[in-house]
TrEMBL record:
Gene3D superfamilies: 3.40.630.30. This is N-acetyltransferase domain-containing protein. It comes from Stieleria neptunia. It comes from the Bacteria. Residues 2-144 form the N-acetyltransferase domain. GO terms for molecular function: acyltransferase activity, transferring groups other than amino-acyl groups. CDD domains: NAT_SF.
Length: 306
């Protein structure tokens, strides 16, 4: 008999052996455990739902619950990920989603749905989330009056309690933390070094102070490019619509992400507390040829350096 069960810690080994270990060759067992067994407090006693057929996992949906303070107000989030059902049980797929639809006071996101999942969620009232990326190329500009910190203890001392919580909650994950210090002002930046794409890059997911970031983003991009030996830095356009970036361009990305917001606008939705950050996923399509054509115009000698 097939039953629906909440995903708790003790169920993880079954999930891993049934599906997760073969789903992503770049994520090991501990990477996946961190996604399902996160350590910050939530109002829920589980991290998703599983379909069990005589204790065998035949379906699952992961859920990352979090609370954020946005414009001074507490907001509830639930990020969906890893929605999978065995072909023999596809008729039960919606059973996994029904509990999600009851989260009326949560902004629900799904950044990595396949085409079928996207179609289902759109029929159930979810909206597309604009996912175009701003590609930031190397710059020679450097500001000697700015300090960039990458030590988490030093950074924590400059953050308010809400950003301290973001930093602490993301410490178990292989993500990058940076703080721009300009006199009495600072800006916390969280990013990932993405190696899944044919062209590795750094993806900035969170910018704490847009004004400080706008003044010094050239130093940030140069530092990340040099540290991680990548060709470019990416930033979601919706998170920095008011900033003008020199030597940059908007890169097309498919609108596959979906969300169901509660009182929030698209520019207030980022990838924190999601599988995109936890597993350092790419949101760029594999369009290396198109990227190469663009770089020929922007970066002399790009091909020679590959």
């Amino acid at each position: 008999m097939v039953k629906l069960e909440k995903i708790r810690s003790q169920l993880f080994p079954n999930l891993y052996e049934s599906f997760l270990k073969d789903d992503d060759p770049l994520s090991d067992q501990q990477d996946w455990r961190n996604v399902f067994d996160y350590r910050w407090p939530t109002d829920h006693d589980h991290c998703g739902y599983a379909l069990l057929d005589n204790d065998k996992v035949v379906g699952m949906i992961g859920m990352v619950f979090s609370q954020r303070f946005i414009n001074g107000a507490k907001r509830n989030f639930c990020n969906l990920h890893t929605w999978w059902v065995h072909p023999d049980h596809r008729g039960r797929s919606l059973a996994l989603l029904r509990p999600v639809l009851k989260l009326n006071d949560y902004t629900i996101t799904h950044f990595t749905p396949d085409a079928e999942v996207r179609a289902v969620t759109k029929r159930l009232g979810f909206s597309s989330l604009h996912s175009q990326l701003k590609i930031l190329l190397p710059l020679h500009k450097q500001n000697r009056h700015v300090t960039l910190l990458d030590d988490c203890q030093e950074i924590a001392g400059l953050l308010d309690e809400h950003e301290q919580r973001i930093l602490k909650d993301h410490l178990p994950y292989n993500v990058g933390h940076l703080c721009i210090v300009d006199g009495n002002e600072s800006c916390y930046v969280l990013y990932t070094h993405v190696v899944r794409h044919r062209l590795p890059y750094c993806h900035v997911h969170y910018v704490g102070n847009q004004a400080v970031f706008a003044r010094h983003e050239a130093d940030v991009r140069n530092a990340l490019i040099a540290k991680h030996h990548v060709k470019f830095v990416a930033l979601d356009c919706r998170l920095a619509a008011d900033i003008r970036f020199p030597r940059s361009f908007n890169f097309w990305a498919p609108e596959h992400a979906v969300y169901r917001p509660v009182g929030l606008k698209p520019h207030q939705i980022d990838h924190l507390y999601s599988d995109v950050v936890f597993l350092k996923l790419t949101t760029l399509p594999d369009l290396s040829h198109e990227l190469g054509q663009i770089w020929r115009r922007f970066v002399p000698g790009f091909l020679a350096s590959k």
